[in-house]
Amino acid sequence: MNWSQTDGLNALKQMQIRTSCRSFQDKPVPAEIMEEIFKAALQAPSGGNLQPVTVINITDKEKNEKLMQICGNQKFIGEAPVNLVFFIDWNKMSVFAENEKAPFTCDDSLLHFLIALEDLMCTAQIIETAAHLCGLGSCYVGTVISEGDKICEMLNMPKQSFPMVSLSLGYPKAELKPREKLGKEMMIFENSYPENIDNEYIVNEFRKKYGDRATPLPKDETLLSNMVEALKQSFSTSYGEEEVEAIIKTALENGKINETQRRFGLHYHAKHLRSHGWDVVKKIENNGLTPFGEK
After folding, report:
1. How far apart are CA 214 and CA 221, in angstroms?
2. pLDDT tens digits for range 135-187
3. Residue 160 CB neighbour total at 10 angstroms
4. Does the global pTM surpass 0.90?
5. CA nearest 228: which of 201, 213, 249?
């Protein structure tokens, strides 16, 4: 196939307007399109060309709805005609290594785990980009790692494997509008990290991204009390008791919390998410991957 720089630049223009899609048409993705996307994915970079990745292509409506239920009832997962679940999978290589009488500790190595995770995300991102270029919408779902034990059981996964992320695919219901992102000046630095990057500049750039978005505090006393308690637990990870009380007092006076307080105080709960990570480690180890054990 002939290739030109113009073709590449045209593709880049399309990539520059990509955004996540959380509302899909009730319309299947043609098998021939998915086949071409998967062909591209097979050429993903891989450390040592080991390819310790398995992708489960879920097109069965009942399984997609079950995946939705497992992943916090996020509606778009059940709505999507295709859900791809990406697994770190050392089972296949372990079988081959044993057959070849080669030593094998990839399932018990932090470095192999991290490189496999890199390989997995390279594969996933090639699929996400290819899908976008084919006119499909998509949305990554990170919840699968928290519910990996249930997903392994649902999809009959062998030991030495665990899901890291899933990708919902389908035709968007409406035109997608790119979200505000940090600019090039905040994301890409030449040769080294700036020595004297201005803190005020950083704050202003994030405020451009998030704008004046805020979450109103609930009027219901029980809901408000529960929210305040959750916020206190989160804030206590980073601030002293007096400062926590001052932050809560300001929020109550304003009747709202700002977007960053919502993200790290409630959605990505600063305390719970940190401790929950060790629950995930146990699930990973229970399915035969032990990269975090003491050695």
Report:
1. 20
2. 999 999 999 999 999 999 999 999 999 999 999 999 999 999 898 999 999 99
3. 23
4. yes
5. 249
Note the pLDDT of residue 137: 97
Same domain, 231 and 157: no
User: Is residue 51 within 8 Å of residue 119, measured between CB atoms?
Assistant: yes
Last residue of a domain, one of 170, 200, 224: 170
Residue 29 — pLDDT band, cuts 50, 70, 90? very high
Name the pLDDT band for 237 (thresholds 50, 70, 90).
very high
My answer on whether 108 and 222 are in the same domain is: no
Last residue in a domain, options 138, 170, 202? 170
Residue 67 sits in a domain whose CATH number is 3.40.109.10
**Residue 268 counted as domain residue:** yes
How many domains are contained in the chain? 2
DSSP 138-186: EEEEGGGGTTHHHHHHHTTPPSSEEEEEEEEEE-BSS---PPP---HHH
Q: Are 19 and 133 members of one domain?
A: yes
Same domain, 46 and 163: yes
CB 174 within 8 A of CB 24: no
Give which of 167, 154, 159 is closest to 88, Cα–Cα. 159
In the predicted structure, residue 295 carries a pLDDT above the cut 60? no
CA–CA dist 171, 137 (Å, integer): 6
- Helical (H) or strand (E) element with 87: strand 82-89
pLDDT at 28: 96
Give me the phi and psi of 72, to 5 degrees please. Answer: 75, 25
Please indicate, yes or no, whether residues 62 and 139 belong to a single structural domain of this protein.
Answer: yes
d(C-alpha 79, C-alpha 83), whole Å: 10
Question: What is the domain extent for residue 115?
Answer: 15-170
